Amino acid sequence: MNNSESYPPILRHLSHPRHHQPDGGDPIRESEPDPLPLIDLQLLSHDMNMQKVLEDACKHWGLFRLVNHGIPSTLLTQLQHQAKQLFSLSFESKQASCNAADPVTYFWGTPALTSSGTPLTTAPQNINWFEGFNMSLPHLSQFQPQLPQLHSFRDTVVEYGEHLSRIGRRLFEAMVKKLDLNIEASSSYVAESTGIMRIYRYPKCSNSDVGLGMEVHTDSSVLSILSQENEVSGLELLKDHQWLTVKPVSNTLIVNLGDMMQAISDDKYKSVTHRVKLNNEGERISLCYFVFPDEELEINSSNYRPFTYKQFRTQVQQDIKTVGNKVGLPRFQHTPHSSHENLQK
Ligand SMILES: O=C(O)CCC(=O)C(=O)O
Ligand SMILES: [Fe+2]
């Protein structure tokens, strides 16, 4: 089997006609030094300067790079290696490996999934050029996969997931401290029962006209934590009307704030708009962890009417089916927003 046959058939034809690409502003500035805010997790508990850097990153970027996170580098490289092996299996075996009732599902072409991890629509408006596995972390350790490769991967992801939930909680606590919010149980806002892990593989592509690896969107999460250990770049964030590359730097994590964090902070913090471009250097593998509030927890703020994450998710799914894309937070503003120019996931 050649590598192309390990991709879903629809992703094997990278010569598709041009798809609509949302206006990207200026081209990526690959050669410039990394401009992202840098947060040291170990310093965060006691260093006021670091707390200020975090506050500014949340207000003005919605994204930062995290170092000293406490995850052994061997675990990060092992994950990347095992993910690569998993993706290199034939499309048919990946497809047959999970079904909708499992905590692990296989999907491609669209990031919009139902809460059980199956694609929301069978005919997405644009193809997103990736394949992925979606894993519900709380149910993962009991999962008995058919594919032998999924056994060792499951165990590694369970271990990684424990680190991420620790990191997510610490970051959230440091973020809300700066907001003077009266949040008693931060565990309901970054609820372990909601943790999702996704791994993605984006094909190598020399023709960026085919479309995007992943469409322009904001995440619905409170926080998303990304690991990109394979040196192929692709992720970009929108900052001051320009797309900036989020370079892969070994042993660092990328944290982005999602819509729930923006709502909890009453718009003081920002849910970052981002996308993934295809790359002609090689295929790219990324691992993304998402954490959400407890489904039934009511989020109260002055800019939005009270809503639960469950209501938000239902609205997003309804909009994707009816309008064709996510509208997101503007749906919950006191005065409904009329311009939905941002395509959000
Ligand atoms: O693959 C990436 O780098 C980003 C993925 C992403 O933005 C998402 O899953 O929401
Ligand atoms: Fe995202």
Automatic annotation (TrEMBL):
> Where does the source fall among the domains of life?
Eukaryota
Q: What is this protein called?
A: Gibberellin 3-beta-dioxygenase
User: Which segments does the entry list as coiled coil?
Assistant: none
Q: Which UniProt keywords apply?
A: Dioxygenase, Iron, Metal-binding, Oxidoreductase
Where does the Fe2OG dioxygenase domain start and stop, copy by copy? 192-293
Annotated organism of origin: Vigna unguiculata
Picking any one GO molecular function of the record gives:
metal ion binding
User: Could you tell me which residues belong to the region Disordered?
Assistant: 1-35
